[in-house]
Amino acid sequence: MGFVAKILERFKDKGCHVPPISLRSEEKNRKIVIVGSPNVGKSVLFHKLTGTYVTVSNYPGTTVEVFRGKGTIRGENFEVIDTPGMYSFLPITEEERVTRSILLKERPHVILHVVDAKNLERMLPLTLQLLETGLTVILVLNIIDEAEKLGIRFDFSSLEKRLGIPVIPTISTSGQGIDTLKEAISGQSKEARDRSFHYEEPMENLLRELEQKLQGDYGISKRCLATLLLREDLEASRLIREKESDSSSINSLVERGKGRFPHPISYELALERQRIALTLIMRQY
User: Fold this and answer.
1) Residues forming a β-bridge with 55
2) pLDDT of residue 265
């Protein structure tokens, strides 16, 4: 919970009001959060899941709009949230900060990561980052018809097996695949699962060293927190100082670890995830 609070501290520092946070929501409806980069069909999918009545409001302390609606899937009511565009779990823009805050604060039943199927290789690294958090994820391959027109084919069962999550092809504009997606949502458990991927050495060794030093309960996986520390995420660094009795040794390991690589650590992590994404896609063929 401390990590979530620290993410929103930035808004407080600007003199903005931020409502109290609780990870253990008592709300009746479970939440579905739709995530993805712009122009992948998130909004159309949102309306397919919710119908016509939605609410639009600025996220507290920002001018970023968030869309919320209600939907019923297999007799169960859900709140569906359409988030701003997101390219990485390490936020650069205010829109990305808001999306990450929603994911961590509201603890959704499931995250729908919507991607443009014809650009899967470029968008899959964000899927890997979302899986590393320990949250429940479904990969939605949208605009599948355009991919097929380009001769791009997918082995969905193989991709599901390698990612360890449902992979659902859809054409949100026509509604194709929406019923299958609803079945997948209904069948998901919110239990945290270890879906981290192995990086090449020395990156994997460094991440494991960091994970072993992290003793607190952070609401996300230690693997995810370790990657954020390496990428100098301010909220993650502040949380370590507050929750770890030996934060200095953790910070020291982070600094020493960076010296093991010829390029900036963010670039090295991006290369690793791109390599994993490419491997996952190529193994389908």
Assistant:
1) 68
2) 94
* pLDDT mean across residues, the chain: 87
The answer for residues whose C-beta is within 8 angstroms of residue 65's C-beta and 6 or more apart is 56, 57, 58, 59, 84
With 0-12 CB in 10 A as exposed, 13-18 as middle and 19+ as buried, what is 137?
Answer: buried
Q: So what's the architecture of 203-282 in CATH?
A: Orthogonal Bundle (1.10)
Q: Residue 14 and residue 9: Cα distance in Å, rounded?
A: 9
Rounded CA-CA distance 43/165 in Å is 22
Domain locations along the chain: 2-186, 203-282
Give the predicted TM-score (pTM) of the model. 0.86
Q: Which residue has the tokens 């494991």?
A: 208
DSSP H or E segment with residue 4: helix 2-13
CATH class entry, domain 2-186 = alpha beta
Alpha helix locations (H) across 91-177? Answer: 94-106, 120-132, 144-149, 156-163
